[in-house]
Amino acid sequence: MNTIFKNILGIGVIGAMLVGCSEEAKMAKMPPQKIPVIKVMQQDVPIYNEMVGQVYGYKDIPIRARVDGFLEKIAFEEGSTVTKGQLLYKIDEQPFMADVSAKQSKLAEAKTQMTNAKNELDRYKPLAEMNAVSKSDLDAAQANYDASVAAVDAAKANLRSSEINLGYCTLSAPIKGIIGKTEAREGEYVGKEPNPVILNTVSRIDTIRVQFSISESKYLQLAKAYRKAHSNEEARDAVDSNETKADVELILADGSVYEEKGKIDFVNNTIDANTGSLLIQASFPNSSRILRPGLYAKVRIQFEVAENAIVIPQRCVIELQGQYSVFAVGEDNKIVSKPVELGYQMGDLVLIEQGLSAEDIIVIDAIQKVGSGLVIEPDFTTFESKTNN
Fold first, then answer.
1. Structural domain contains residue 238
2. Range of 331's domain?
3. CATH number of the domain within which 235 lies
């Protein structure tokens, strides 16, 4: 039995060895597999910085109820374009008209008293010259007249104040623009908290403003980059005029880039001590009227250009525990893993700070099929970037 078992075992071992040799021979005869590769790109890359901002109209003017009363009329369509001077709201005028009438009566009374005082003073003057009345009587008549003149002036001021309040009952558009949703309806009492004081807002949107903030460190970084890209004189002029020559773009919420470029027209003079940030404002033409106040958007500013930068598709990059690498084709078409340091990212492309040169060839779209030491047949392909900077 032992002899038979040994013979069977020997036959099995010999068979396995034959099969193994056959597989090795087959592997040796297999040609290297075709793997898609690309040559790294070298080009000038504009470096952008993106900040989140909020859109405002070129002018956003609140329509306030400056007197309190019942809202009698709304004379516009919400969301429509209104012209300067167009009637918007009307508050009940009756109480204010009554007040104007009362102040007119007070003024008439004051004028009558002034006339009487003037007549009395005119009678006393010639009598005083003949010593027919005492000097004190003349002084009293003069003082009475002066007081009546002051009373007329006060009555006129009170009347003017009442007329102004009466005028506040009619609210007109201060500018041409788009008016929003009304905060009060006809019949409501307005003008005192908690009732609506700001009834609406009219916005001029042929040009819009975008306000955004940057941190102190980002401000210093951008300021140094701007100074590096421009002469000292240009940098000083930018500070003095509160403007820069930097291109400003707007990235909308759907990811699209707004068609018209803007300019920075305001940089706050101080860093906010509470937030450690600097407020900046850029203005954009809005001829299409697509932008509306209240939108959130990203402001993209170009301050420098990385010249002859090494750029590769992001999908060529391998990440492992925070470390980045790519598979490059080395000598004899052997795969080599190269660690890289990533820089500025732009859509489906990424700038390589360190680790690659302009002559390198790297694997694309087949990084799961290769490993260090594997010999391949490079299949050169073309990468079409969808990035639109």
1. yes
2. 30-47+307-380
3. 2.40.30.170
- The total number of structural domains in the chain stands at 4
Tokens representing 304 are 């420098």
Distances in whole angstroms, Cα of residue 308 to Cα of each of 45, 262, 351: 8, 28, 10
Residue 62: asked if its preceding bond is cis (omega within 30°), the reply is no
DSSP output for 261-328: -BEEEEE-SS-BTTTTEEEEEEEEE-TT----TT-EEEEEEEEEEEEEEEEEEGGG-EEETTEEEEEE
Q: Tell me the per-residue pLDDT of 246-285, one tens digit each, with 9 for 90 and over.
A: 678 999 999 899 999 999 888 888 999 898 999 999 999 9
The C-alpha angle 89, 95, 98, rounded to 5 degrees, equals: 125
Model confidence pLDDT, tens digit, residues 41-54:
998 888 788 889 99
* Same domain as 234, residue 156: no
For the entire predicted model, the pTM comes to 0.66
Separation CA 266–CA 247 (nearest Å): 14
DSSP 76: S
| Chain position carrying tokens 């820089």 | 343
Q: What angle do CA 152, 156, 158 make, to 5 degrees?
A: 115
